[in-house]
Design a protein that fits this description.
By secondary structure, the chain is an all-alpha fold. It is built from 5 helices and no strands. It has one domain. Helix 2 runs antiparallel to helix 4.
Length: 105
Amino acid sequence: MAAGVVGVAIALSSITDGPVFAALLRLAGYPVACAAIVRWVPIVRNRHVGWLTAHELGMGAICLGWALTNRWSAVAVNGAWGVIALDWWAISNRRRSSSVAPPTA
């Protein structure tokens, strides 16, 4: 809950930057992404696909919102985290799969 509030606060701090649609994208994206980020390790460990999807959609909304305002540094920072998070998820899954011993006959 607190992470969502922080996300709203982040979005509201830039509410006047750019077109209204861009602000609405950030207002939708930041609370979702922040809520997922504070739970990130359990999300990855327990393979919560729904949370991963919500996080990635939130990050996409944030990036698009900043792109519509021509704030390319914000797009780069948020986009980099979106890619890193997805890679973390994929690498963690691969590592977990390879560490499981094959069944014995």
